[in-house]
Amino acid sequence: MHAGIDLGTTNSALAVFDGAVVTVVPNALGEQLTPSVARLDARGNATIGRRAYRFLETDPANTRAEFKRLMGTGERISFEASGKSFLPEELSSLVLASLLDDAKTALGYAPRTAVISTPALFELPQNHATMQAGRLAGLEEIALIQEPIASAIAAGWRADDAEGLWLVYDLGGGTLDVSLLETKDGWLRVVDHWGDNFLGGKDFDNAVVDWALDRLRAGQDLGGMSRDNPASRRPLAKLKAACEQAKIELSRTLRTTISCAEMYTDAAGDPVDVDLEIRRSELDGLIAPLIERSLQVCRVLLDKTRVSPEAVERVVFVGGPTLTPAVRERVGGLFGGRVAEGVDPMTLVARGAALYAATAGLDARPVAVSAPAPPTGLAVRIEHPAVTADLEPFVVGKFLPAAGETVPARVTIEREGGGFTSPETAVSPEGSFALQVLLERHRQCRFVLKAVAGDGSPVALRTSSFSIVHGVSVADPPLSRSVGVALSDDTVHVYFEKGTPLPARRTAIHQTIQSLRPGDGEDVLLVPVVQGEYKRAHLNRLIGSLRIDGKGLKQSLPAATRVEVTLHLDRSGQLQARADLPSAGLSFEDVVHVLVPTASPEVLEREMQSATDRLVDLRRRSFRGALPAVVHRLAGADALLAEARAGLAPARGGDTDAAQRLHRLLLDLNGTLDAAEDEIRWPELEARADDRLAVWISWVSSLGTAGEQKLCDQAVQAIHNARERRDAAELERQLATVSALFDAAYSRHPEAPVWIFEAYESHLTEAIDVPKAQALLDQGRSLRRQGNLEALRTINRQLRALFPGTLEERRKSFGSGVS
Amino acid sequence: MSAGRENLLRRHLANPFFVLELPLDASREQLERQGAKLLALLAAQVAEASTYPTPLGRKERTDEMVRAALAELRDPDRRLAHEWWARGLA
After folding, report:
1. What pLDDT band is residue A120 in, cutting at 50, 70 and 90?
2. Site from B1, B20, B67 to mutate, A interface, most A CB atoms within 10 angstroms
3. Could you tell me if A167 and A90 lie in one domain?
4. Among A540, A601, A660, A674, which has the minimal tally of Cβ within 10 Å of its Cβ?
5. With a cut of 0.85, is the ipTM above it?
């Protein structure tokens, strides 16, 4: 039995998969969806789900919803009556525990393991918080899956005609994920995805709330009631719930009433009831800009993947807000109305998560049920896929004989129920074997492994049977945003590019940029780990930091010491990092996990002003240079800026969710401005590339090895292609390759150490430690006079660490201590 | 060897075609089957699967490398680039 959980912003659901059928587990009220709402009474007793939801309007100070939007921020959510406060993951754990309880009623046991879904654009701190919620709820083993992948698995499960490209449009309460997937011969692959972490059904509700407030203000005095006034929280919660209800009703009817009894009190202290009629056409008008924004997300994704809307075979709608007729009409319209029918947008994610739990081999049953007491016999480890699209998958095994036991000579595998027996295969001297088995289409097949000794007598095995389901094979979950180490010059060394399958591990070599004193806990070198797509480190999100301090050092660690940094991301995107200092024989694994940062409204306002100034400047330059592509790109920046401005008032009113959203919008805005800047500078970039390439190629041609010359030729060809596509990122990537080859060739020149040394001599004042640089230069001059070029190379390496970028760059790059 | 150069070499020796020991014209079916087989062999700790041949001798192979190689070759654009590099290094 396998369990999957859709931990949603508005509602959550749990589904189970028994190898043949997926079932959504109903809660105690018989509903498939449990509202993600928590209430705490004065005595601290918690109520979860529908019963808590009923208090959202009347008792908002003790009833909380939408805490998923704050996952990973460290923001505590308080409950007035009990005086207690909780982290978002703690509240999420209560929702999970409630779902697990319902599953216990249905199954007779609480699932021990589960797959939990998260939005594709969740960053590592948010995933980390989700894992934490699962653990707090009592789950022993957890895997995360991105919501769009879960949807696609559920929609594509056993669908024979599901070949081609799919677009999953997943509009939840708080997030939009749009994913392009490809199914081919039963293999499901995420081609790419894009989204908006801060666009969801709640924004539809807010648009209706603002409309309702405007209408109310026109007829009466509402005092200071507004979304940026913390004192308005209670009446606005009531209004919001009424608006949400009206929005849902407008999916079925053409007009309805926003009814809110005793929403507020007037000047005389009398309660005022609110009744506002709203037509579907009015709702459509209110949410049109939001739908347009979501369509823009679809277009960006199609653009990135160079896929036309006509090439998309079908669109799958996921999430409650996609039941809104205007959403279906406009998004479906973009794809010629090719919408997948017969899928339940509300439970698709939970179903897909349960199916994925089978692929990931997570058995939800208690240990006593899933692994009965082992019988006697020879131990064997059998490795096979739990679910596969391959009708003839490999099964691999390795015998693990105890003292006195010997490995069998040959093995064979039979399918239960007949119809297939593998050829007999010899077991290797190591005790291993690999055999192909034959599955039946779209069925769960059970197999039995049989082993015989050299004389043909059967060998009793401790474990001999296993099952494989023929279904959709899912590629490993891809990383949603690139992860790398921020370097001291405010650039990023990318370890894992966006799309890298998880789990993943990679090691790269860096150098320290300053010395470290032994035994000093204060003296610390930081290795900041960032997530994002921007070349400038500071524009990306800091997700963790590795600290290297002098505590374990026996002697001073000089600048330019080699550091081997290994980053590991598990299947659920959890980060582990290690820095090895081979020269000191030390390893550091103390990763400080960073929360999604919160910024004060004042800081956000300043950042917004700076982005506005930059936008004005870039627009002026783009008009002056007659660059229509840049003008077009800047129109996108305008839209982001307008949205950021709209978010400032709620952020000032203490809405931490709005502050988060504003922070992300400003990062995206700066990224868009960077891209525009790159385009304006394209001619300059090309000219610089030409200048450098001419020199670099000549060096590689004369002093590079045959292999390096071959690599150089290929990179030059790639540069040519990148120029044709005007792909600045690719151009810079390939230039970096040629630059590395040039470095290698250049360093072989006998005079190179002297030339490099002279370059440092002429830039002495830019060193981060001028006295130390001066001392090294003095030593170097003496070595130069003696002609000791090997020793001069060592001096150069030490000098290099003293020029790691400017102090300003280092400060911006999260204080990185490595280059 | 400079850090940059070492990082570059490391990346090229982890070319997916080397890691998966597949010919450059391998079909999608061959790719998936070989990947699944290698992952199973590694999970069962079969010694022969723990290294792979490269132009600079045998290198260590891990399940993460196999997964990464599979993902690279599933993407037609990235596969083309790897075919290009593998030809250059062969």
Report:
1. confident
2. B67
3. yes
4. A674
5. no
